[in-house]
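Blackboard transcription, Thursday session:
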Amino acid sequence: MPDDLLIRPATPNDVPTILALIRELAEYEKLPDQVEATEALLHDALFGDRPSAEALMAMYGPNGGEGEESKVAGYALFFHNFSTWVGRKGLYLEDIYVRPQFRGKGIGRALLSALAKIARERNCGRMEWSVLDWNESAIGFYRSLGAELMEGWTICRLGENDFRKL
Amino acid sequence: MPDDLLIRPATPNDVPTILALIRELAEYEKLPDQVEATEALLHDALFGDRPSAEALMAMYGPNGGEGEESKVAGYALFFHNFSTWVGRKGLYLEDIYVRPQFRGKGIGRALLSALAKIARERNCGRMEWSVLDWNESAIGFYRSLGAELMEGWTICRLGENDFRKL
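(Written on the board underneath:)
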């Protein structure tokens, strides 16, 4: 892990920053209009009575990222899924993002490594996430870590209006 | 919903049947060697202290599927995921399966309809599941319900041995 980096769990104070990062990631993915999340929804999801996701923050700066001048370099947001084949829960990484000015410092790898540690501690059978097919640099990076691309499967999605009809 | 059909939540007594159905589904998907789940793991996942998934059973037979002679026609197994874009949890359908001798009776649709009801009651923003690209009949059925196929995204998977290395 880089010397100037701290990976720590998100706190309620991070919610506005996480929402800003979600928007930056959606811009990067060329899908900025998709973001309907608000601070209140995100706060509830991460820190409400029954959280449905968790987040890690990557802080970069002096004193191993712990100084007041440290900057938010990126984040990861995840939840637990379940595989009937494995018979155990897994860790599903919904978002991982490193801001452009902090790339090339090993921060993405450090975030994935912190997630792998959580997956191991919680006895998960797998880690999974989705990648856009045009994002060749990300695909190459994930393959270099040993990830397998699950070609041959496609996600089906039913929006709220359609499942109300069903 | 067909007259002879009952959709009900699974109980601990269903665990051996669910495991048998998971194996039948894996056979149908031409991936029978993938099933590592055991009754103990499944019991823990569905009915342990901190459940990671839930299941519905489709029972078919006299008296609206409630009679003792009713047979298990299929099942659905799901958990909650989370979308940062929507800012709300969703319902992820890990498995849906109708045994061959019970097909063509509207049981798959009844299971999906029961899941949509749960998604609505729990204020989910989406329902999602995966389909094998060769399964044209399933894809046609899902599209007829209004489902969108998320082409352009691929799942990356890191197995336990690889994340231990990270």
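Lecturer's comment: Residues 112 and 136 of chain A are 18 Å apart (CA to CA).
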